[in-house]
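pls read this stuff:
=====
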Amino acid sequence: MRFVFTFYVFLFTVFSTSSQSKFKFEKNKSSISIPFKLINNLIFIPINVNGEKLTFLLDTGVEKTLLFSLDDKEQVKFFNLESIKLKGLGSNEAIDAYMSSKNKLEVKGFVDNDHEIYLVLDQEFNFSSQVGIPVNGIIGYHFFKNHLIEIDYQRNKVIVYNETNKKVNKKLERRYKEETITIEESKPYYVSNVTTDGNTLPAKLLLDTGNSDAIWLFLDKSDEIKLPKKHISDYLGRGFSGNVYGLRGRIESFKFGSTTFKNPITTFPDSTSIRSVNFVSNRLGSLGGEVFSRFSVFFDYPRQKIYTLPNDKVSVPFNFNMSGIEVQHDGLEWVKEMEPANNKNTSGYTLKLDESHVQDNLKVKFALKPVFTINSVRKDSPAALAGLRKNDRLLKIEGRSTHDLTIEKINGLLKSEEGRTIELVVERDGKQYKYKFQLKSII
């Protein structure tokens, strides 16, 4: 899918030593089940770090564990700090960071007592505002490397299996499609049959749960990959080394598991944005969350296998944000609300309506509500042509206050169906403006 903040922080080079990090079951359990939040096809799980509960993006596209936001977690302690550099997607230079060792990570009895963490100092890299919840970091390879991991996108659960669990092996044999993957430089790779401009080729793709799009292809890595005639230029997100730009269009098809997907929206990052990435041999792109979310997926790094079973979402068409605006969560504010007062509740406030009337059956309460602003506007898009601008504050969408919405719901409206009329009320320089435009698919 088209995630409004398509975030690609998953490829980087670390100039440091590697640790002997290993997650283990603390007790003799056959499995543990971890609930997750799914936001725009990205998975967020709770993990305790040195005794403090934090939220991590679960990302198969990273090797090292990263922390970049501890705004409300001042009590977290880190040990053995060492200065390092991180470099990856984007066109700028490497960024400063620290490496910390001997950290304890734990979730539901799944524990690593010797975990390396990389602390990123650049607060521009904090993407909490783009997903609408506080996110503290990213975890990848070290979570997956020693166990069979199931990601159930319909039940929003990550399940980690102990090696002694024989029941799940029978389940995989009966119902799931088994395929071989390779683990190279601590990341999983898969070969998919990709068709562009009538030409089908086997394409080696990174399996990346930290990428919300369906598929990425690199035009400069193979002459056989053809750019669709209908395409748009777009801002793709923020990487370690700056902003990432590229093109979007629809290719003819690609295959994952037992399913061939036709006319998927495909992303083609530009060569400047990926020039700092260390590519494994023959890699041509990535598969992301828009694909995985249509399956129940088992990652088996030790045996270099992947198991897939389509879910109810497998036949849903590939759509994208047709408005041209990208929305971000811009903090919280106190909002006054009125609700019927319980006559038996003497603690409710009375609301004075004017000089001569007092309404006794209402009470006033204050609640923290989200604030949303426009982060970018694509040139010549329906929103741009209507007059919307970057930094406009969204007040209402379709007559509904944005205080009652989430980024997920806003994005759902902006990609709902071609031809749908969207009405927005925004605030700009202290004044309110109303805009109306129609969603239009241009790829």
